[in-house]
Amino acid sequence: MAVLACALVSGCGNLPAGVDGDLTNDWKPLPAATAFRPATGACHAELTQTGTIDNYSPVACTESHLVETVAVADLGAVTTLDAGLPQAFAACSKQATAFLGADWRTGWVVLQPVLPGKQAWAGGARWYRCDVAETSPVDGALVRRTSSMKGTVKGSGKLRMTCANPTIKGDSVTEMHPVACASTHTAEFAGLFESTAKRSSDVSSDALADGCDRAIAKFAGLSDDSSLASRIGWLGFPPDDTAWQMGDRAIRCFLWLNGEKMNGSYRNAGPAKLKIHYSD
């Protein structure tokens, strides 16, 4: 038994040539662990608010996808995920505008900043990912694409808000059907105004009217005076409360002449074309 025990423990004999008995001194050190970080330029099948290695499955932008990552960067000195979200949204707004070719808020576009999960955040991850998606003006659903969104809001880009035929039920717009401004339409995108309200639901109808009147006056070449409300009507679209809390406070304003048919753009139309034809 003593001999057997000796054999199990050490072999008790001479070591073969080339074997020194040290099981670790020739092993290469393991590579340092690298934290997960998403890549710019990737597309993804689904929209998400939190990015983890488990839900990260990028696809080529030529394949069917919902969102496209336009930038990945690092947050500044923030201590919580909640504090990081508005900072990421502000930075992503600039990145998305540069990528799309014009202010992303003037297009049929959704902007979604993506932050690390709680576990990764606790471990020191401070990256943020800027994702954009196309949204349908008809029903607000996200649109699956098989191409990049780069430059799609610039100039005559396909996602740029221009002219449309809205479906209106009561006081609500239920659908927007984009059309070329050269064709007959009843609404035209005129611009934005930013609200200081804490929630989108806090924006009053008077505030919407004042803000959209000013945006349309600038767009159409009208004086912002007492006659303005008798010359134009408007449709105003605030962001939903989720986007509002992230930092999107811009109301999208469309010129609307109470259903009157328009042909061509009304940019710089002036008072000669937009005559006084409403009354209190």
From TrEMBL:
Domain annotation Septum formation-related: ranges: 41-253
A Pfam family the protein falls into: Septum_form
Name of protein: Septum formation-related domain-containing protein
